[in-house]
Amino acid sequence: MENFSLKDKVIIVTGGTGILGGAFVDAVVEAGASVGILGRNARIAHERADAINAAGGKALALVADVMDESQLISCRTEVLDKFGKIDGLVNAAGGNQPEGVLQPEEDIFKMNMQGMKQVMDLNLWGTVIPTQIFGESIAATGKGSIVNISSMNSKRVITKVLGYNLGKAGVDYYNQWFAVELANRYGGAIRMNAIAPGFFLTEQNRTLLTNTDGSYTDRGGLAIKQTPFKRFGHPDELKGALIWLLSDASQFVTGAMICVDGGFSVFGGV
Q: GO molecular function, one example (predicted)?
């Protein structure tokens, strides 16, 4: 299936130092692409890039905050200087923060508004801003694909994490709106789609879903109960959808959201 190949492509992965981001980085390298690993954790970014380069791949560590345009512009320059072009972008930066959580015993009319806004901004504008910066170079390349990372939180009510819900719902609308506008301007040459993961354990949700002994918290148990596969997803299980959306194998697909969720989004609970 040659049209699934990313050979000679240059793909940027934001949130590339996270757990899911690490799987995305590995996937694009396995598919033949050069990768820019963008994240705030310089140590992990360099460790992952060094490991890929030592194994014969091509990777560049990019240390930046997705909310900082000047840092992203500097990263874009680094990528263009090293690889000469940009073909794709994976907007994987995001997640929840303690300030964006409303516990059941807390007053719903006294939410941490700044905390909720901070989480919403990270997930929504942390997707929009990198697209503005790196998308311009994808347009200059003449062809490319952008993949946003959404969530189950965008379509179903997930308690406690309003800021995250708002941010990911915004990502879904942005994904559709921007895909149409890209099509109006570039036809099928530049596409935008999204992946909506179900429940995967990351550093940001691990304490919400599991106890220190590895057993499920009440919240983790509810997530498993709602997932027909009765388990959390493994990051490697996101790779197939990502490569399909980045490659020519999905060349007639834009504005779509692919759920990789073990059935969570369609299960009625009965």
A: mannuronate reductase activity
